[in-house]
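From the thread on structure requests for the teaching lab: each student submitted one protein with a one-line request. Submission from student K.M.:

"Model Protein O-mannosyl-transferase 1 from Calonectris borealis, tokens only."
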Amino acid sequence: MLGFLKNPVVITAKINMNLVALTVMGLISRLWGLSYPRAVVFDEVYYGQFVSLYMKRIFFVDDSGPPFGHMLLALGGYLGGFDGNFLWNRIGAEYSMNVPVWSLRLLPALAGALCVPLAYQILVELQFSHCAALGAALLILLENSLITQSRFMLLESILIFFILLAVLSYLKFYNLQRHSSFSGSWWFWLLLTGVACSCAVGVKYMGLFTYMLLLAIAGLHFWHMIGDQSLSNVALMCHFLARGLALVIIPVAMYLSFFYVHLTLLYRSGPHDQIMTSAFQASLEGGLARITQGQPLEVAYGSQITLRNVLGKPMQCWLHSHTNTYPIRYENGRGSSHQQQVTCYPFKDVNNWWIVKDPGMQQLVVSNPPRPVRHGHIVQLVHGITTRYLNTHDVAAPLSPHSQEVSCYIDYNISMPAQNLWRVEIVNRESDTDIWKTILSEVRFVHVNTSAVLKASGFIGASLPEWGYRQLEVVGEKLSKGYHQSMVWNVEEHRYGKSQEQKEREVELHSPTQMDISKNLSFMAKFTELQWKILTLKNEDTEHKYSSSALDWITMDTNIAYWLHPTSGAQIHLLGNVVTWASANVAALVYVCLSLWYLIRRRRKINDIPEDAWQLWVSAGGICVGGWAVNYLPFFLMEKTLFLYHYLPALTFQILLIPIVLQHLSDHLCRSLLLRSMFSASIVAWFSSVYLVYCTFSPVTYGEPSLSVSELKDLRWKDSWNILIRKQ
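Reply posted by the TA:
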């Protein structure tokens, strides 16, 4: 029974020493001296703020992309015991002792190091020689710009890692497709493709370009499968469903999970709350939640409310009035109604309170039981402090003469009667009998007499003059001019009014609410709002000293100074290996020209290379040239500040193309032994120049050793490069 114990248990394994060596070299090149410099380097000043907010569980919005990359950086801080206490206010600031610099930079460095063996494996899976694969890996290893970008708390190396992992996983899956469909390894690589694509998109939206490329390639491969008569309809359907699950459903689910973790971690109110809706703000701990906790949910006749404009751009503001009136005549000579001013005020104030009144009754308190206001009901809005009614009429607004003035009505005993009836329209209602709810309901107020809609028009950037205290204009806008979010309001603060007397009511307006009704949003509601804000929120694009155009990247006519030592000439620059960048451009040009030549010749029924070599050439180009194109060309359509590091994902694909073109030239165009020998010798000389340039620029890649003024001047190979030289 125990006979199997007589023989030793033997495990045999094949170890690719090329992969091991490349991985070790990649780790050394990216991890060596990782804590140097112990100072804020370029965009670490940007990402570090978010890491600190994660450590303190404070909510934030970053319009640059999804949260997964930020969470990975924060994970490094968490593993290093970072408490989030550091002021990220300037590049070059020395890190305090509580900042675990090595830990914060570890994950980007690991990702950059692993790109080296990934490049090797991708070329092997593309059916190229191990020599070509080794060349691709070494080019990635010796690329100065990739080294620089991966050694700091930045996201590009993580993005490139997931992009290459997605490509490798799909290639392994595709190669298994031929002989072991639906096997364990087949499923593993297919699922890993979807996971890696989702992670790439979750780090930066640039990852979406490679995801779309792989979806297109997968669609093309499946289209070819449809023509395979050996596959039954059931088998085709199973293949289709497997790809749909792995490449669509799982990536979407993972993308949602990134936001779920993000929102779970960041549960505290923070500086970015104001751009979110009142409902979102109220779901966070502290901030608005402290004010609104326990408010009545249903707005009733007699409710005391503040009305926040839903748009919230360029700043949040609340419907407001004060005792001052519009001037009889404006600066341009136009006249006004001289009624009490109504504005949108960007700060919380007692003059933001309004009372919802039933036009058929005089009382300004909530009855028992409360009578809720529903969609379509007619109400009057009474200003809480001045007790004047919200009104609009056919008088031009002060800044928007094509819109109606909105005021609080003062009876001057002239032929201008009050027009103060408003119809409540709940924009996000589920039925026409919906009750107006605190925070949750988004409402429009439609003027009964003129059909104008209450609108905060100050969002065009103009504010009222001194007589209006520079507050934002509120107007009555005709619905025929179209719908806009500035026409929508929500109740933010709410209490049930109990005092009929004005003096008592003023005291009541200053007091906190007591009732306890929860208004927590669902995850999907919070995700939808946050995703929309990320996609639509745009910071002002300002010209940066090191910003560049996409055309500058191909020939590396620009650089970025990442760090400068405060006393010596030591500095770090984002500069690529000139020989590698030039070779990548030549390789892309050769590939395009050869492909056009082959296509024309094949059209004439002339096959210069065997069919299997042609298919290999096309598939490699689809990955490498396609990867370069989808990661580069979209930048010509983007209206944002661009930097050289945006080109690195595209450059990585272009570098992979170099050994592909070299092997193709060697195998199919160098037909004699002499030509092949000469070609091999030229490759050795070329690769030596790559290594020489890597060594030459290493001091500005790693930041040490410090260079003299003359040595720094020698590194300025192009006049457009900004190498920093201290004045003597």
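TA comment: The chain has 20 helices and 14 strands. The chain has a mean pLDDT of 89.
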